[in-house]
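Sample log: Subtilisin-like protease SBT1.6.
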Amino acid sequence: MMEDEPISFLPQDEPRLICSYTEVFSGFAAKLTEEEVSIIQQKDALIRVYRDRLLPLATTHSPEFLGLRVGNGFWNVSGLGKGVIIGVLDTGLLPTHPSFGDDGVPPPPRRWKGRRREAGHRAPPVDDAGHGTHTASTAAGNFVADASVRGNANGTAAGIAPHAHLAIYKVCSRSRCSMVDILAGLDAAVKDGVDVVSLSLGGGSAPFEYDPIAIAAFKAMEKGIFVSCAAATKAGAELCLQRRPLGAHHCSFLDNFDIEGKIVLCQSPGLTGRIDAGIGVLAFGGAGMILMNPKPDGYTTFADAHVLPASHVSYAAGSEIISYVNSTSAPTATIAFEGTVLGSSPAPTVAFFSSRGPGKASPGIIKPDVTGPGMNILAAWAAPAETRSTMAVSTERAFNMVSGTSMSTPHLSGVAALIKSVHPHWSPAAIKSAIMTTSDFVDHSGEPIKNEQYQKASFFAMGAGYVNPSRAVDPGLVYDLGVNDYIAYLCGLGLGDAGVSAVAHRNIRCSTIRNVTEAELNYPSILVNPQDKPITVKRTVTNVGKASSTYVAAVEVPEEVVVVRVRPRILHFSKANEKKSFAVTVQRKGGSKNGVEGNLKWVSGEHVVRSPILIPAKSSASFATAFAVNS
């Protein structure tokens, strides 16, 4: 990153410059040797050098599952997202897919500065992988009747914001995304004038000042753009298991067994390789396959389009099947296809692959922020030229059922677009607050949301809860944040003047501003870690509901473990956009060392504004501890 023209700093013997960035930060990407980097680092205009790296790529019924229905409610109020532009950075899209038809979609708003898909323009960023087509249609795919994957989940496919506009930036190949290309996509999206950026990308966590995507997202936020990012897909459990590499070798170990005409019992290989396992079974004459979860994967099962009759069962069900097989010399099995079953319980749940908090860059803030649909999501797919069973192509209008945090991200991007359509002047922080404080922390049966083991999910698994779009459009109160608030927070993290300046794109002297800790940031969630003394944090809410309204505080925590006081306990508002502040004091009780999860609610006659409260175990060096959770 440099503040001056890059060409004068680069060797002139051959072309080195890849691209320049002007929107998300002032800088450029170039091919340089280590020696050349060392020379450039001595230049006064240089702020920081970032090495390029590759990042991995981390729905007929999901809108209905989220309470979105045609002709009424949030979809009706928001006009299905009309006038909002969602920038999707991914593998491109298949522009001829009916999910991207323009029926009912108005022309792009005048503020749009990018290209349009019109005759005479160069070819669009065509998707040759499917991932980008899937995520784009999940966010804003138009209505397509009779969509299904091999007859499953049949219905009308639609994205969360079906009449929003899509701006597509191809920054990824089939499986990897270059940091250089991601930044170029972000730079173009900001320049073009998108309202929402959707990033279904994985990759490790780095300190903010060393994370170019975080720096670019800061600049996007400063320009009023909402950025939705995947929390990444957890691989830790996979890495510590000793399994046969079913996916890599198509079950080649089966050549030592006679499986002709038999149903084969296999352990699920996890996130990938499940369909390949079936290919291996079929190749050796197997009639069917039962995939059993290992214990860490619990009850998370995938609805894949297999090449043979197959069933994916939980660890508990698999254990029962193994017990039965071991109890008889002639076990039998039948796979019955019952079609799509709606309303199963418990739902929603947190899948095993969903990454858990806390975040490494800022462990004092609850992460993830919120959860959304990401399991067995049906959406548009880019049919490849060759036939591959792993593409799960069902018709000429290809759809696929895919799972991952990549699928959850565009759901949240679509929700943000709907909110932006109704509240065009809300800041990204206000939109995030609305989504978080109105989310559900109980499932559809009224029980606490569970994880993959069917145990109560912690806030480090689900964040504030499961997104509820219909309530998010009218949250009552929001916890807003501006650029200066984030700068004070970055100073409080200890990034130093150079680090904060790199993120904020300006010279910052932390000694001249009031630094705030993570707990003091005006965030919709609260994480404090009192030891022997109470801790008090301040929050400020903005009234975005009725001008005249009153809210009363309600605290839900295990009272035998902690005491939580809120002052004042009543907030009176007399006008729209009025701000009121309050203080939350947390103190451990009776020498308790347990961790605690609970909620702070501001309740009026029409709204419940909920913030999760998390108190880690006393003197815990890590936040990943057991909690005495309030039910």
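Observation: The longest strand covers residues 579-588.
Observation: Residues 59 and 378 are 4 Å apart (CA to CA).
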